[in-house]
Design a protein that fits this description.
By secondary structure, this protein is of the alpha+beta class. Helix content is 32%, strand content 19%.
């Protein structure tokens, strides 16, 4: 059975007729071609499919797309404007916050929301690690991810953020 949904993804409106049983992950990847939303565990354990849903990080594999009707969604593709990467992305690149890159899009979305939520607060490395819980990285050991988030947070506090 098909259902109509209206989504705002990366600042653009979409009007879709989708299968009623399709997950938000499936619609974002297969219908709208947002390839940064990675399919991995499909159980909400790894964070590879993390997006921002009305400003909050969620695992898109756990939500039916029909339940997202009217939602504001941000994927990693939405962190690029006019061909320019968001400062958070730059921090991950410059400080080697990724290796294979599979977890990176979900990690970026969780880090983005975490930085926004903790604006004006000084954070320890342990607090940053807790802030990205739910996003598994099998390559990096998280050291450079934490460094990148710390650098991006500093950029946010100094106004170098959009």
């Amino acid at each position: 059975m098909k259902v109509a949904v209206n989504l705002r993804v990366n600042h653009k409106d979409y009007h879709l007729d989708i299968d009623s049983h399709a997950t938000l992950l499936e619609v974002l990847r297969n219908e709208l071609a947002f390839q940064s939303v990675h399919r991995s565990c499909e159980e909400g354990e790894c964070g590879a499919c993390t997006i921002l849903f009305n400003g909050e990080p969620i695992n898109s594999c756990l939500m039916l797309a029909a339940a997202a009707d009217g939602a504001e969604i941000l994927t990693t593709e939405g962190l690029v404007r006019e061909g320019k990467r968001h400062p958070l992305m730059d921090a991950f690149v410059e400080l080697h916050g990724m290796q294979c890159g599979y977890c990176t899009p979900g990690m970026l979305m969780t880090a983005y929301a975490f930085i926004e939520k903790t604006s004006g607060q000084s954070l320890t490395d342990e607090q940053i690690r807790r802030g990205i819980e739910g996003n598994l990285c099998r390559c990096t050991g998280y050291v450079n991810i934490v460094k990148a988030i710390r650098a991006a947070k500093k950029d946010r506090e100094s106004g170098n953020w959009w």
